[in-house]
Amino acid sequence: MKSLVSALALVTTIAVVSCNKQSTQEKLNPSGIAAAAAQENPDAKRLAALFQSAGPRTQFYTVPPREGTTIGTQNGSKYTIPSGAFRRKDGSVPTGPVTVAIREVLSPKDFVFSNRPTATNGNYLLSYGEFFVRATEAGADLTLAAPIAVQTPVRTQLRPQEKVPMWNGDTSAYYILNGYNQFNQATTVTQPASQDPGINWNAAPDYALFNSTTNTLDFSISQLLQWRNCDVFSGTTGPKTTVLGYFNVFNDDTPNSSPEQPSMLFFKPKTINSVVKFFNLILNAPPGFKGFLSYQAVIPVGQQGTFLAITSLNGQFYAELKDVTIAAPASGTNYTPVSFNLVPVSATDLVALVNELNNR
């Protein structure tokens, strides 16, 4: 495709919708096994451990409990904390030193290592970063009485629109359980369960505002222990196709493995700060055709980008980084096939392949 820059130039209007972004519903479980019943796979855990070790680190800062202060992170973001911002859970003001923990997910490699793809229903979004803040006093979590102002540099090649949609996310989904208590009385319990995959994102009512003077996006954090994310919806037009990715090396336990997966497929659109993860599995496929497919008719024909196909199998990592231009479906078909020739790689090599996505 000519570059996605021209396509994203069409993104002049913000589309905020009431939907979840990259939620649990995006993972197809063809075996019919519920996530709670799925088994941990040793190859999947090995891959997840590697990604966790290579992913973005949490940064820690000690700040006064009552005075206002500004924190500058290693990534160039600024967090302005007003005086009296922190409260204990009982409402009292902390008196001891406050530890502020900040985690920022900003680039394609971060999206992969952290399992936080920037997509909604398979369509990619241009991301300006994901941010998480926690504050504790002597190990006890604090809450906010006043919002923290955040100013983060714009790291993409594209100038943001004036308002960038914000999303709130949590690492847990909550389920209502009906049952009986110790007196055999009917009762309900709200039970948290880990999100699979990644984070359950919901459109927030506010925006990140682009500051052309400082070339930053400015927004606020009013709740701790919750992810904040700013993304712009892609406004691509023209024909789209369904992409099927065929793996020559595939871990057959992928449908039954939770929460980690031993085989994965990512797509990085060229020059765009975004990564799409293919969650849907190709069903009943013979060897050589096992793998993943996109959502139906969501990938733009002519789109340039890079695929990263990964499999962890029998203690060995396999991978391929492949630059492509998405072709139109062949005559009489409604999909575009992309075949991957995964080869054995070391853990160091695999981390390097993920890091390379930042340059594509």
Characteristics:
360 residues; mainly beta; Chondroitinase Ac, Chain A, domain 3; 2 domains; 13-stranded antiparallel β-sheet; five-stranded mixed β-sheet; 4 helices; 44% strand; disordered N terminus
Cα gyration radius (Å): 22 Å
Q: Quote the beta fraction.
A: 35-45%
Helix content bin: under 10%
CATH architecture verdict of the largest domain: Sandwich
Mean pLDDT: 82
Structural class, please?
Answer: mainly beta
Largest sheet: 13 strands, antiparallel
Number of domains: 2
- CATH topology heading of the largest domain: Chondroitinase Ac, Chain A, domain 3
How many strand segments?
A: 27
Give the N-to-C terminal Cα separation: 14 Å
Uncertain stretches of 5 or more adjacent residues: 1-37, 171-175, 191-198
Give the overall shape. globular
Q: How many DSSP H or I helices?
A: 4
Q: In CATH's first tier, which class of the largest domain applies?
A: Mainly Beta
